[in-house]
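Subject: Interface between my chains keeps coming out wrong

I've been trying for a while to get a sensible model of this assembly. When I model each chain on its own everything looks fine, but I need the whole thing in one frame so I can look at the contacts. Pasting all components below, labels as-is. Any help appreciated, I'm running out of ideas.
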Amino acid sequence: MGRYVIRRLIQAIPVLLGATLLIFLIVFALPGDPIAAMFGDKRPDAAVAAVLREQYHLNDPLLVQYWYYISGVLFHGDFGVNFSDIPVSEIMAGKFQVTLNLALTALTMEAVIGVGLGLWAALRRGKATDTMILASTLLLISVPTLVTGFVLQLLLGVKLKQWTGLDIFPVAGTFAGLRSYLLPGFVLAGTSIAYLTRLTRTSLAETLRADYIRTATAKGLSRRRVIGRHGLRNALIPLVTFLGADLGNLMGGAVITERIFNLQGIGNQLFTSVYLREQPVVVGIVTALVLIYILANLVVDLLYAVLDPRIRYE
Amino acid sequence: MKSTSTGVLPAEGGLGDHPLLAVEDLHVEFRTRAGVVRAVNGVTYSVGPGETLAVLGESGSGKSVTAQAIMGILDMPPAVIPKGEIRFRGTDLLKLSEEARTQVRGQRIAMIFQDALSALNPVFTVGWQISEMFRVHRGMSKGEAMKKAVELMDRVRIPAAKQRVHDYPHQFSGGMRQRIMIAMSIALDPEVLIADEPTTALDVTVQAQIMELLAELQRESQMGLILITHDLGVVADVADKIAVMYAGRIVEHAPVHDIYRRPAHPYTKGLLESIPRVDLKGQDLYAISGLPPNLLELPTGCSFHPRCPYRQDNCVTDVPPLHTISGTRGSACHYWREVVDGERQ
Amino acid sequence: MSNPTPPVGPGLPEAPALVTDTVTAPAPPRHGKKAKSGKPASLWTDAWYDLRRRPMFILSVIIILVLLVMSFWPSLFTAIDPFNARTCDLATARQAPSAGHLFGRDNLGCDVYAKTIYGARNSIVIGVFTTLITTLVGGLLGIVAGYFSGAVDAVSSRLTEIFFAIPPILGALLIAATFRGRANSILLVIIALAVLGWPMTFRIMRAAVITAKNQDFVVAAKALGASAGRIMFRHLLPNSLAPVIVVATINLGVFIAAEAALSFLGVGVQSPDISWGLMISDARDRFLEAPLPLVFPAVFLSITVLAFIMMGDAVRDALDPKLR
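Reply #2:
Try treating it as a single job with all components included. I did that and got this:
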């Protein structure tokens, strides 16, 4: 176990550096003067520009600039400042809570609905229920978030209230506590729910064909115990890893959902900064999200070792 | 499951007139998209307390399917049992309700599988898996059940059982894993133990140890043992009687020594002649010609006729009944007399 | 096509589908008669036979054909040219559907139907070209990495790990945002999506090649002294193509959805070019009062994505019945 953990940690380091470098390069390798960009249409004073140049290490090679940046991020939580000298970490703070709430709501829905539907389908394999569930996963995968977002907002957010007077799902812009995350959470989780349903179905169906399931039956255990204890415990392994890895994915995907539902999270901030061409904020947010993504994957790898003894003792 | 299911469990104690376990005219077929696979076509055999029945046959002969039918672990569908009885102490298991069958499974009739690595659950410790029998069926506490598991592991002679009870299946060698499988199956002192090719996946030296262990456990507990194998060599020392299966039928059954001395079916004879023997070194090894039958389209008449050196015209058209040779022997061959006399036509 | 036998034997009552995979008895051959004639159907012939009788496949083919015609000759479907500003009339903004304007008018008083029809082209162009690039780059690198294990494989595998650490929509957003205005917006979307998309194809191709590499016929070809290039493209490629084609088909749909997302976020296709994502973005502000200008492009977008994913699903099921 110890060796496995250490190996995974070491493997994560080049990935982390590589991914953040890639982001850095994409944004800052562009020809053009970032200082000029800072001042927009005005021409900066030469002396001021020189000071700024020094302050932001702009005279150094790009790789050195990257190193200043990433060591600041990793060791001091310093994501740099925007053009108005406001720390990017300050801009992000508070916004992250909203996105995390959204992603966790989505993850919960994913786990409950996805695993539930998948198990149901697996136990009714080849029957009408199974076919129905499979068809709906196809639909859920195919209809883009963009579309489900607006359509559900119209149907459940607006029309439901108009028709029945029930105000279950608050509309964009109005905030009503955790309840306002329900609809966006479902929209964000949509595709993942479908994938998890399919994964659960194949995983359990495959597990139930295993020899040790036959053994469990031969031990005289009830069908409930055979499936619930011997089958599920094994089928769960790929599902947990999928769910863990998806947390990072959901936070990345939140940008569209937050736009649709006007949630003031990190995704919406990213959109605004892209619109305003605030490169430092854009890089900061994307870097932070990628770090979360890598971290989530690392946790999953470790979780995997906990769940599967064959990995633990390799 | 048949519709006329009852919840009456087979009695314990004295057997009366009933054999311990008797399979009677059992048929099993698999209804697949490619057609009906007739895996078992009228098998009859029985085993008594302390008795060892070896069921011999190549893969696809229906020997494992019969065993799975006895255990009630066939996937139904696609498997269907259109005909036959499996009587345990006089009660037809096929007529029992699913709950009643679950009471028999594992507690009174247990089974060992061929590949212990895949037959044991990879994510639970072996101790957990053995003690589960006591926790579920005997309502024991975790600690008590675990103590029992250690005792059982000692009994099947796993060294350092007390420590190894917390290990996972993949941490054991093949032979040790099979011992764990055996420990789990005898946990609740079953009356019948079915061993489905228990040694096929193991080294030759380990094979002998496992067979010895099974024989010893059987002597101690007087359980009936059904030993399924494709290897004639394995059964010679331990079996009391042998049933040879071909294409889902018993083609010959006899006490073990009679079979080795004078086989009464051409297929058995072919099997015996294809065993390498030291005293016949240098001679060509005999091989049964042709291929095992396609279970989707069984040959007409005697299923063995396309491969049979004794074949006559009526073999192609008439299914041979199981001729009684003596009180304890039978052969499903029209020309069993010629086979016993050794005259090849 | 040699005439194949229906998989259900004569005289058999309708056997439930999907039963074969749980059989514990010797598995019967999938097509009884074909195996006997000694001419086993190839993977592709078998799959094609299977596909032709799948309603989902046929439906997706029809939808895709219609979309192709729509993107090559949009004028076949509508007489209105949405690029002509004179067809728009602010006074009629958000007008409900009528005989002349089937889908009504949008916020600028332009015909929604004509725009939706013309929007198909960019979706298809972006989907097809992104798929082509990712499949070529990822596939080629995948073959090479899979065939030459060692340094080549190690380097390219680490490289894909780095790309995999960036959520695709974020990475594409970053690229598209950075280069916005510096290149043709459609080209930019294709590049942004391709940069993030190729590692997936790489991984699948590499895994398939590694499996194929150890098969006897490849080992034999190697032993006979066939060149690396010959082994890769004559032996490994045809035997590893199936999963790549499945993923390419599905990805085509995914890329189309991603284009819409980027355009919705303002970094994709730019006006005056037409894109469903852009239409959704434009209609969003007045969506709750006038949903139709948003709903129509959304429906077209969904059906298009659905068609490709459905086709990919069908092809996968046909190629590998075990996955069903």
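Reply #3:
Confirming on my end. Chain B touches chain A through 28 residues (CB under 8 Å).
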